[in-house]
Automatic annotation (TrEMBL):
Signal peptide: none annotated. SMART domains: AAA, PAS. Keywords: Aromatic hydrocarbons catabolism, ATP-binding, Coiled coil, DNA-binding, Nucleotide-binding, Transcription, Transcription regulation. Residues 117-144 form a coiled coil. Residues 3-67 form the PAS domain. The keyword ATP-binding applies. This is HTH-type transcriptional regulatory protein TyrR. InterPro entries: AAA+_ATPase (IPR003593), AAA_lid_NorR (IPR058031), Homeodomain-like_sf (IPR009057), HTH_TyrR (IPR030828), P-loop_NTPase (IPR027417), PAS (IPR000014), PAS-assoc_C (IPR000700), PAS-like_dom_sf (IPR035965). It comes from the Bacteria. Residues 71-126 form the PAC domain. The keyword Chloroplast does not apply. Residues 150-379 form the Sigma-54 factor interaction domain.
Length: 463
């Protein structure tokens, strides 16, 4: 006998499978866990040559026992066994047991089922990713959503909020249309948090920022070894992370046509497979898409799939640019200043003239540009007061693109900027000249001189 009978009971306490062979590779003992793994009884295995069991259920074409006997050292290998449409993965470690003549007497193999461990790792990785998304979501909501608290003081934005409230109660896809910087992400988050999915994840994907070669694996995830450089544990994609939540597809017009096909299939069937995987994964995701492009023209030019367009364009919401809702500018300013003051523990205020200039500007970059300008002025102003001279030069046409070559040009550009500010503020050269304490003829002469010298487009009325 290899060992007393009590050893059987001892080995059966192990969660891992244990198989012991002699120096000739004959199986002399297996525990209960190993029998469960292989689906074979001890009577079917004991006494058999380990070489004849290769290919049976658990074993692959490689045997840790044979390698231990050949190499006379501990050996660890990974083995795979077919299971349904996939496979199970086992880690087998073989340990040689030597006699007094330093010859191998027995080989003890411990077999661990890695499938469950790998699944736990994937769940942990997914949980960590979702936790990170939650933290980012909370921070983003604190800094951005709460920053302007979905500003809606104009009729057009009140209509947008009403539309968002209506669609939030259902799961229909939403298409947010509007120029860059108008607040499409804020509206998407508002819809998510007003919906029944508010406790689920909100996953934002910028379709224009992901390399085309990585898009499929980013959206649908990948299995271990799916491609060179892939994580050993595999990785869940956006659809898995957004399960029971919302997937926000920003810049949807930048998505390659081949991925559009797979996206459409995932939306219609609510299931997909990871890259390199065979297992079908179901995902319950609400889609909100956004674009500043003319999708209708892209469909006509066959740059965007018509079937995907109609799948996403179920409930379109147009978000107007800031120039069409200027009455909200003071509210954005107020929210920004409050946030900036709380963050930096300083007091900042705008003069009436500076506020009026901000109100009159067309804001091609919309809310994003306004926030950028406000922060820049808050940094550059002195004594906590933002005045007209703190406004950036680029707000006055192509004046901002001119780089002075001499100190004299620097002085002239500073004066030119001040004159354009005054003209914008006071609407006429007479009032602007009076505000700058110069005569109207001098004001007009200098404006013409600077416009000609610096090649600026004269958009002022010299009256």
């Amino acid at each position: 006998m290899f060992a007393p009978k009590s050893l059987d009971s001892f080995l059966d306490l192990f969660f891992d499978g244990v198989i012991i062979t002699d120096r000739d590779g004959l199986i002399i003992k297996v525990n209960s866990a190993y029998q469960r793994m292989t689906g074979k009884t001890a009577e079917e295995l004991v006494g058999k040559d380990i070489r004849t069991t290769v290919g049976i259920k658990l074993h692959s074409n490689e045997s840790s026992t044979i390698r231990v006997l050949e190499e006379k050292r501990p050996v660890t290998i990974i083995q795979r066994a077919p299971m349904g449409n996939g496979y199970k993965e086992y880690m087998t470690t073989g340990m040689p047991m030597f006699n007094d003549q330093n010859e191998i007497e027995y080989v003890v193999n411990c077999v661990r089922d890695m499938t469950e461990l790998n699944e736990l790792k994937q769940h942990l990785s997914r949980a960590r990713q979702m936790n990170q998304n939650y933290l980012e979501e909370i921070e983003t909501l604190r800094q951005q959503v709460h920053k302007y608290d979905f500003v809606a003081h104009s009729k057009v934005m009140l209509d947008v909020r009403d539309a968002a409230d209506k669609v939030a109660s259902v799961d229909s896809p939403v298409m947010l249309r509007g120029e860059s910087g108008v607040g499409k992400e804020v509206i998407a988050k508002y819809i998510h948090h007003q919906s029944k999915r508010s406790k689920g994840a909100f996953i934002k994907v910028n379709c224009g920022a992901i390399p085309a070669s990585l898009m499929e694996s980013e959206f649908f995830g990948y299995e271990s070894g799916a491609f060179t450089g892939a994580s050993k544990e595999g990785k869940p994609g956006y659809f898995e992370m957004a399960d029971k939540g919302t997937l926000f597809l920003d810049e949807i017009g930048d998505m390659p046509l081949d991925l559009q096909v797979k996206l459409l299939r995932a939306l219609e069937e609510q299931e997909f497979r990871r890259v390199g995987g065979v297992k079908t994964i179901r995902s319950d995701v609400r889609i909100i898409a956004a674009t500043n492009q003319d999708l209708e023209e892209m469909v006509a030019q066959k740059e965007f799939r018509k079937d995907l367009y109609y799948r996403l364009q179920v409930y379109p919401i147009h978000i107007p640019p800031l120039r069409e809702r200027k009455e909200e500018i003071p509210f954005f300013i107020e929210h920004f200043l409050q946030q900036y003051q709380e963050k930096n523990a300083i007091q900042i205020q705008l003069t009436r003239e500076a506020t009026q200039l901000l109100y009159q500007y067309d804001w091609p970059g919309n809310i994003r540009e306004l926030i950028n300008v406000m922060e820049r002025m808050a940094i550059s102003c002195a004594n906590g007061e933002i005045r007209p001279e703190h406004l950036p030069r680029e707000m006055f046409g192509n004046l901002g693109k001119i780089i002075p070559k001499t100190f004299q040009e620097e002085v002239e550009l500073f004066e030119f900027q001040g004159m354009k500010r005054a003209l914008t503020l006071h609407k006429s050269t007479r009032k602007a000249a009076k505000a700058l304490q110069m005569s109207q003829p001098t004001f007009v002469r200098k404006m013409k001189q600077y416009e000609e010298k610096y090649k600026c487009d004269p958009k002022v009325n010299h009256q």
